[in-house]
Amino acid sequence: MTTRWRVRPALPTLKLTGAVLLLVIAAVFATDAVALAVASVAAAGLVVWGFRDLFAPDRLVADETGLTVRTGFAGRRHIPWSAVERVAVDRRSHAGVSSETLEIDTGDALHVFSKHDLGAPPEDVATALEAMRG
Hints:
By secondary structure, this protein is an alpha+beta fold.
């Protein structure tokens, strides 16, 4: 059985919409070329980020052989279950804002996923991974 955790479809849509809005606001309110250039670079970053989420939405895939994680812009790395040293949820709180991330430690690398990467709460994903890992 293969289980996939991926970016929710609304997230890339939000990023691409934000890029368009940023360009429109900059075109209307920018008072100089530098402000327009900065807004254009930020919008381009949002577009690239949004397209990455559209074309490579799977962040974590688990099956009986192990895990496949997203690396770099759109690369993948397969990790056999025997190489997974630890699956944990890291909880942090700073300035009244709390966050949770899923951490997969392979000894040579630490793969960190937020709930936005997974489209699910990290605690639920950790529980599912531990069940699959056996």
